[in-house]
Model the fold of this input.
Amino acid sequence: MPFSYDPEFGAAIAPFAAALSAEQAAAGDWARLREIADAGLALLAAGIPDVPGVERTDIELPGYQGAKVAARLYRKIGSDPGSALLYIHGGGMVAGSMELYDKAAARYVAESGVPMLSVDYRLAPEHPHPVPVEDCFAALLWLHDLAADFGVDRARIGVMGDSAGGGLAAGTAILARHRALPLALQILIYPMLDDRNVVPDPELVPFALWSYDANLTGWVSLLGDQRGRDDVPPSAAPARETDFAGLAPAYVEVGELDIFRDEDVRYARRLSGAGVSAELHVHPGVPHGFDAAGAGTSVGIRSRADRIRVIQSL
Done:
């Protein structure tokens, strides 16, 4: 049978279908893609209720090559779990921000009790690779260095991200292994991993909320003319990794109708093949961003519960 949306998700997204199909940026037009993506993220953020009981502390930390990078530490009032996560927002490498993901991060903290440091890494194309992933690694290093000040055990620090943030989380985990910085867990939510994934799959095109043109734009913005070449480093495109031994255990989640499906499944399998624990979920009938667009559906609720469970496992 041909692919189709999960019925609940299809009903949830129906009111937005016309707008989603109309709002497309031409391949290579990163400025328009940023405008569309940020507007969509702002709309989704507006739908998240305010999150009480979470304390926010704004921080300025040293990013790549000493540049100042904004970050925000979230802690649930009265909670003292001893673990922590670095949270990396999505946006296709060219869009998104700490502010647009503020309530999303706060909600994870409120529901899990685990504190998070959200990093406002610098975006491509103004800041191409390695700036975004190095900013994220710098935030992870900051969290390690000051862990004791926040009552956090350095052996219980993980990294989490969705979409581009998931790809940057995987890249940060690769850097952490290379630089001998302990990392307990990587939570990769429909991560953007492979710069070579730009040839449309006709079975997925009708459902792609993140399109192949957008994917090409994001990767070219990050890598320029290097995109697609053999010398792309794994810290930029983690699917290029050839040695998975010693990476942090992973939780990987993706929708069946997401253009990242195959690269994400392959990444989880390669982790497992190297003896790295990897929990993989492929949710039938849903595309990229299904959790935000269909938060109240059965699949949205189920995926949320799994994420909170995994966060609390730290």
Summary: The chain has ten helices and eight strands.
